Amino acid sequence: MRVGKGCGRCRNRHIRCVIPKGATSCTPCSRLNRDCQLDPRFQFKPVRHVYQKSNGAPARYDLQWDQGQIWVDVTQPVTFVLEAASGSPGEEVFIPPEPVTPAPLPLSSLLLDETPEQYPEIYHGEANSRVVEHRSQITTSSPFTTFSEDDAVLSLREASLMRYFIQRLAPWADICDIHCNFSTEVPRRALENPMVLKAILALSSRHDAILANDSDLEASAYHGECLEMLIAALNEAETNCDENMLIAVVILRIYEELENNTDQKFHLLGSNRLVNLVSRSACSGGVAEAVSWQFLRQAIYASVVQYQPLQLDMHNFESSTMFQRSDDAACANAIIYYCARILQLCCDQPGRIVDRDTWVYISDHVAEWNRNKPTTWQPIRYQAPNLAAERPFPELWMISPPSGMIPKGVALGDLTTDQTLSCWNAVLSFRLMSKPCRRREPAADLSQKKTIAEHLVMVIGLSLSNESVENAYFMASHLLHRFGYCLRHKVEQQGAIHFLNRVESHLGWRTSWMMRELEEQWIELAALDTWGL
Q1: d(CA 421, CA 310)
Q2: Residue 517: which domain range?
Q3: I want to staple 397 with a disulfide (CB 3.0 to 4.6 A). Which of 329, 359, 381, 516 is the partner?
Q4: Which has the minimum average pLDDT: 283-292, 444-453, 523-532?
Q5: Cβ-based neighbours of 355, under 8 Å, separated by 6 or more
Q6: Coil/strand/helix, residue 435
Q7: Which whole number is the average pLDDT over 334-360?
């Protein structure tokens, strides 16, 4: 092998051939405006013998096959007839054969019931190798190349929105579902049920418009079409309520939640009625059970943020398989259930003293859950906050996404005596929100607010430390809306505002109105100086 230098014209003229770096033509040919016939970069010459030392002396080895070498028959070169404009109709291109395994019949022959006798150039018996000759009138294609744009089930825009839902939005609902029904089963149903399809398109379009700061006219159109079909289906809900209605309503509920400042909770009320109507959906498994647990999380959101009592029949969830499983998703759903029970108990009759036996029952179950929780719910890294270094939130790295979504280890506060119940931040929020019959002392109230602030800081730190778990951002923003006024340090307040800005810019969750309310509350409390800071 030798390296090629120069071009043929310069070599024939016996002149120096200069090729600028990266150029495709030498300087003399470029100056004369002629085609430059550059030699290949590397040239190979045939090797018929080599020299190698043998016993200290050079020996010549001829590269020749032994006369006893056994040879086998090889196929002839494959002949192709070019159909493109770059070649003439009769021009043939010979390509050396490659070893291939026997291939199945062409798809066209399978569809037309053609026999091997009709294509003698394709079939030559088992003893001979296969020779395939492609001619202009015979084309073979794979099953994928038989598709055309007319065969697409969805338009380009609809397909883009469907993929947007699968990649961006469905993981929100699948966070506590090991089967990921919203990413797999729900899109499949959308191809069969237009009501589910319109709900997905409406949600994806609205979220896309929010992030792009664009108009949501398209989303409103999809939403209206879905509502027409949903209303017609609800008229028969008493006798014919299926899972597709549940799917459509829960997706439309997320659509509503994206407008937090004008959330009318229409679909929340509808979902409550449907879930209570289909009483076995929460324990039936599959997509129905996944939808029911998503309903429950949405109801908790409304209770914490919008001060609404839970209207779900919690007995529907008691027979769920979540309480028999030990995986991370089931563990998360179990504590969500106890959280909902406490919220329902506190908000059922505000101001009423909670029955001690009921609290003891919940306390025992939460304590049992805390003892049996998986080891994946322990952080693999923890770094405490440092206000002096302007780092207001701790750093907690979690392995399991469900454990990153729901903060743990938070005291609910007093029962009726000195007993303390360890549970989640969301549960703590509503327990501390409920008004007791007796008036609290200022010192006790101050201590309570500082405790809430500590838990709130922990929740935000957990969210920021596990940014891939987007559901954790939602819980933290909900609790900030409810208890953000308890953050009294300037660094914590600035960190909370930056966090809410991140939620809106990255997730499309409206938080601007939360920031305005929190800033007003902080200014008012600073003027009152109720904490003596």
Answers
A1: 21
A2: 156-528
A3: 381
A4: 523-532
A5: none
A6: coil
A7: 76
